[in-house]
Amino acid sequence: MEFRQLGYSGLKVPVLSLGTGTFGGSGEFFKGFGNSQEEEATRLVDICLEHGLNMFDSADTYSMGLAEEILGKAIKGKRDKVIISTKTTFTMGPGPNDVGSSRFKIVKSCEDSLRRLGTDYIDLYQMHAFDAITPMEETLNALDDLVRAGKVRYIGCSNYSGWHLMKSIAISEKYNLARMVAHQAYYSLIGRDYEWELMQLGIDQKVGAVVWSPLGWGRLTGKLRRGHPMPENTRLNNPVTASGGPQVPEEYLYKVVDAIDEIAAETGKTVPQIALNWLLQRPTVSTVIIGARNEEQLIQNLGAVGWNLTANQVARLDEASKTPMAYPYWHQHGFSRNPFPVG
Prior knowledge:
By secondary structure, the protein is an alpha/beta fold. Helices cover about 40% and strands about 15% of the residues. It is built from 13 helices and ten strands. The strands form two sheets. An eight-stranded parallel barrel has the order 3-4-5-6-7-8-9-10, surrounded by six helices. Strands 1-2 form a two-stranded antiparallel ribbon. It is globular. The model has no long low-confidence stretch (mean pLDDT about 95).
């Protein structure tokens, strides 16, 4: 397993991490992801450790805390061998203060996550979404207090826009507060908007990308093919989970899948392995979060490391997955003095 520096920090993380959205399967939304309980989750964690993958990502909102509880049991006795990342911000109760990134919510959520995980520290604590109501100074001061108290080691965010993240970094630098070193962001061969601004910011400010849904919300598993019916065992068949993810035009998807199929035939690799390997060659990517409903899926996804696509194969995938840019990115892309052109 290759390890990379996590943004502007000294922490080394594996290039693949295991997401725990499949743990618990509680509620209509997360039933579509998976239903791994303690025994299976423990086995998945053990397989990961056997392959050198020692980072596990969760969130308080995954199955309303159940995923963290199951992860905590699965890593019992192994805490010194693993890196734990988790998140907060989304709604965790009926009260007006049970949502957002206020000091009240962050401190309570952190304590609750520590209890569920069975640990006294979180390696990477991330804001799951941007809270436009709470002053960013309040959020960062609360996170800084948790770092200074030893309850959190590094902080990051998820699903921020470029100005959200840049403002956060500026405030941290102005007041000497803990700085966000990671951005957990959606990025895939069929979702390249990340490249337009967030990648440029990541390069300039040394923010490591922690990539979520690298297989395009289940579209790049190899199960979807032009002219074939939608397979039954996919979150895309669940109206709740399908509507909650990124939308992808059908013809665009099949164009990309066709290109992946060609390269799969050349390399002997699977569609998911090629999609994951492509991501691992992109700038700013520190780690890619893989999911697994079972051991078979996990083993297949772990096969995305230890080899690399050729430059020609990467270029073909880049070309097949290109989409028109929004303004001002298309204008910036054509300027020769833009140091970070994207495909």
